[in-house]
Specification:
The complex is a heterodimer of chains A (135) and B (344).
Chain A: E1 7-11, H1 20-31, E2 35-38, H2 45-55, E3 59-64, H3 69-82, E4 89-94, H4 101-106, E5 109-113, H5 119-130
Helix pairs in contact in A: 1-5, 2-3
Chain B: H1 5-10, H2 14-25, H3 29-38, E1 46-52, H4 58-71, E2 81-87, E3 96-98, E4 113-119, H5 131-140, E5 145-149, H6 160-163, E6 166-171, H7 178-182, E7 192-195, H8 203-218, H9 228-231, H10 237-245, E8 254-256, H11 265-282, H12 284-312, H13 315-326, H14 332-343
Parallel strand pairs in B: 1-5, 1-6, 2-4, 2-5, 6-7, 7-8
The chains are: A alpha/beta (135), B alpha/beta (344).
Chain lengths: 135, 344
């Protein structure tokens, strides 16, 4: 009698070495009742897509502080699709200039969050987007 | 999922494999149907459990072990390796942070390795309720060796001994003296003992304490505890006698490793192969498999009976009995008797 849990992969693509933000989000989503897979720093798009596939996640959260989001995010979305995971929702957080946000959304990102976003807001958005109660 | 699920899985379709695991984990009708179809194709994989205290290096050891197993010629020829990494679910929020993959990044990109993290979802013995079912799915999908990493275990999370063919208990230096080594519990279930972080001070003392403990347990004439007590709630007496009379009784080796530097893994691989050969030649492999299946069956029938019984019980009767219990009018045991009698 298990209920379906929301499974989230929190990943740090690219080369920046700061994952405090990613860990704060991972912890917040855990506290919202989700199962959060965290993979550590410096993941390639291939590694992230492979993990998302093996873990059958509903959501991929990408934390990027390096400025490489315009390159990395579309690559990751493309690889998820190649693996047949079209329905996986992609959220992006980090240092993202406002002018880049429309392009990311066009590439298939569900939402983009900047510094100082309320973590409660993020978990609410994820629950709403996956259309399931968190429990 | 259709009739050809087994072909899809052995053909290497990782998306289907991953989705089947989710269905099984959520205990859905589709998941049960998949297990039913796959079950006749199970029983081939070597299940290896890795357990030990939080922070002793289980995930790093699994990473290194999987890398070495993939290259090994002697255990099996380039075996495909499935990994199930279990981490705890929060008892307060129901959420979980599954972080074992952080230490397993070297395994990324290898087509012959499949890693799946799972949360305990309320189970207490160091595994999730569906971990055994996960091993069946991976087994049917053609993974030759399945590494099962338990949650960081304390002294009594010994469920892995009921599931795995080979249990590796990992210790790290500085976590207890020889009194810890003679306590009951997790050390008793070890088929192989590993002292990891052997570059740290105290590792040699730790290994010596473990060896002394093993000499006490396995010296001639001593009562060596049989794992059969663990394996089934109603052990088959003849099985117990057979194992104890066996001349070639297995004595767990103590191996020192430094998983971050890949030291000690030739010895560990050899120990795994030796144990595999021992299980096969002594007949213990079949005994363990049968005991595991019996236990799985017993748990399932208990859960199913409880569920069906509760479904038939009017909620009002249940609630009024609970109220009596909360007010300490009746003892828990009496409450159970009362409810069981009602249903008759």
């Amino acid at each position: 009698m298990q209920e379906k849990k929301i499974r989230v992969l929190i990943a740090k693509p690219g080369l920046d070495g700061h994952d405090r933000g990613a860990k704060v989000i991972a912890r917040a989503l855990r506290d919202a009742g989700m199962e959060v897979i965290y993979t550590g720093l410096r993941q390639t798009p291939e590694m992230i897509a492979e993990t998302a596939l093996q873990e059958d996640v509903d959501v991929v959260g990408l934390s990027i502080l390096s400025g490489a989001h315009n390159v990395l995010v579309p690559q990751i979305i493309e690889k998820l699709k190649q693996n047949g995971q079209d329905e996986v929702l992609v959220f992006v957080g980090g240092i993202i200039p406002k002018k880049d946000i429309p392009d990311l959304l066009n590439a298939g990102v569900t939402a983009v969050y900047g510094p100082g976003t309320n973590t409660h807001q993020i978990s609410e958005d994820i629950i709403k987007a996956t259309q399931r109660p968190p429990k | 999922m259709g009739k050809q699920l087994i072909n899809t899985l052995t053909g290497g379709d990782k998306l289907t494999l991953s989705r089947v695991l989710t269905q099984v984990e959520n205990n859905t009708a589709a998941g049960n149907a998949a297990l039913e179809e796959l079950f006749p194709h199970t029983g081939n994989a070597h299940l290896i459990g890795i357990t030990g205290a939080p922070g002793c290096g289980k995930s790093t050891l699994v990473n290194c072990l999987a890398l070495n197993l993939r290259q090994s010629q002697n255990v099996r020829n380039n075996p495909r390796v499935g990994i199930i990494a279990v981490d705890p679910t929060s008892p307060f929020t129901g959420g979980a942070l599954l972080g074992d993959r952080v230490r397993m990044r070297d395994l990324s990109g290898d087509e012959g390795i499949f890693i799946r993290s799972m949360a305990t979802r309320g189970a207490l013995g160091g595994l999730a309720h569906t971990t055994a079912a996960f091993t069946q799915v991976l087994d049917a999908a053609g993974y030759d060796i399945i590494l099962i990493e338990t949650v960081g275990a304390g002294q009594s999370e010994v469920e892995i001994a009921r599931l795995a063919h080979t249990v590796i208990v990992v210790e790290a230096p500085g976590m207890g003296d020889d009194i810890q080594a003679i306590k009951a519990g997790i050390l008793e279930i070890a088929d192989i003992l590993v002292v990891n972080k052997a570059d740290k001070p105290g590792a040699e003392n730790n290994a010596r304490a473990l060896r002394t403990m093993l000499e006490m347990a396995h010296s001639p004439g001593s009562y060596a505890p049989s794992r059969k007590h663990l394996l089934s709630s109603s052990p088959d007496k003849s099985v117990v006698t057979d194992v104890q009379n066996n001349e070639k009784k297995w004595t767990p080796p103590v191996i020192t490793t430094v998983a971050t530097e890949e030291k000690g893994f030739n010895e560990l691989l050899q120990a795994i192969e030796d144990h595999h050969n021992y299980l096969k030649s002594s007949g213990e492999w079949e005994q363990r498999e049968q005991a595991n299946l019996q236990l799985e069956f017993e748990i399932l029938i208990r859960d199913t009976l409880t569920m069906r019984w509760i479904e038939k019980l009017p909620p009002s009767v249940y609630e009024s009995t609970m109220r009596d219990l909360y007010q300490r009018k009746i003892a828990p045991h009496t409450a159970v008797e009362k409810l069981l009698a009602y249903n008759k």
